[in-house]
Design goal:
The chain contains 14 helices and ten strands. The protein has 336 residues and is of the alpha/beta class.
């Protein structure tokens, strides 16, 4: 029973505390709709104060009907409803993927809403199948431990805590649950577009792996993510101790050279994350360049990073900086 699994996941990862105000992000699709009904069923027992939120990306014809659909369900449940939307194509500005721009716009809306409502948690509808697809996609892209950890059941992001109560629920179980409730969710036609890597993995590669190699491939990928996440969290905790509280300070090259490679890379990533705000666009190539500079290149060497940032080897230290142009842009924003 899906409710039993969700309750177990909530307890296992301590996703909620009694009295929590929780924003449930509902697109109107199967996963988020199941999430809403599950949490509504558990809300009295767990003493959750639920709010329903929907963000319209405006990327496909008929998307304006989805907030109407979600609002109606929220009203039937007696839950407050909050809608948001934005011109994702304009926000993208011709840079990066449309998927990423949509994700960032949605997360920004949810973070702002959580702050406004003083909500402790934002619940998302990602499930076991989503996790398997994410891990496989990152394997193919050559991710390190951070990427292979997959999506966390609980994660703080930009001052907001996001939780995923359906992480141990299969997509087939979600579909069955909705049929039992006689619910017809909205279906996003873009989920069938195989020009998107995730859709191609879902529709072609994962079924092939399940048929020809291991019928439990989704469970195996989820287990991999959980095991790697455990190891990654330990290394991260050690790296934070080594890196210290002053994330803007340079790193001594001799100290870095004496570290275990895994710990050294994590410390460097922490510095970059403190500088840029995230390490989402930092690739293995960037890390290889920084290590080559550390071991082999002379003082004055530079490795350029995304968004106008760079790492410079100066004397016996590595300095993490942003370009003069980026500094000026930051100053201009503060003056507006």
């Amino acid at each position: 029973m899906i409710i039993r699994t969700v309750r177990s996941t909530i307890r296992k990862y301590s996703l909620f505390r009694p009295g929590d105000r929780v924003i449930v992000a509902v697109s109107g699709g199967p996963d988020s709709l199941a999430l809403l009904y599950c949490l509504r069923s558990l809300s009295e027992d767990l003493r959750l104060d639920l709010k329903v939120a929907h963000f319209d990306h405006g990327l496909r014809k008929g998307s304006h009907r989805e907030p109407v659909f979600v609002r109606k369900i929220a009203e039937q449940m007696g839950l407050p409803f909050y809608a948001g939307g934005g011109d994702v194509i304009k926000l993208r500005g011709g840079k990066g993927s449309l998927e990423e721009a949509a994700r960032l716009a949605r997360l920004d809306f949810l973070r702002r809403l959580a702050k406004k409502l003083k909500a402790r948690r934002v619940a998302l509808g990602h499930n076991m199948d989503d996790q398997a697809e994410t891990v496989l996609m990152r394997i193919l892209r050559g991710s390190g431990l951070a990427g292979l950890s997959g999506m966390s059941a609980l994660k703080e992001l930009g001052g907001c805590v996001f939780v995923r109560p359906l992480m141990e629920v299969k997509r087939l179980e979600i579909e069955r649950y909705l049929r039992d409730l006689n619910l017809r969710p909205f279906r996003d036609p873009s989920n069938n577009d195989e020009s998107f890597l995730r859709n191609k993995l879902r529709r072609k590669l994962i079924p092939l792996l399940a048929k020809e190699y291991n019928p439990r491939v989704k469970e195996i990928l989820n287990s991999l993510a959980e095991n790697v996440s455990c190891d990654y969290d330990y290394i991260l905790s050690r790296a934070r101790i080594v890196a210290g509280d002053n994330r803007a300070a340079p790193l001594k090259t001799l100290s870095l050279l004496r570290m275990h490679p895994s710990l050294r890379r994590m410390v460097i990533r922490l510095r970059i994350g403190a500088l840029q705000g995230s390490t989402r666009r930092i690739t293995s190539k960037h890390m290889e360049e920084i290590e080559d500079m550390l071991f082999n290149r002379p003082s004055g060497s530079v490795v350029n990073l995304p968004k106008g940032y760079f790492v410079e080897k100066r004397g016996a230290s590595l300095y993490f900086r942003r370009s003069r142009r980026e500094r000026q842009k930051a100053i201009s924003k503060c003056l507006l």
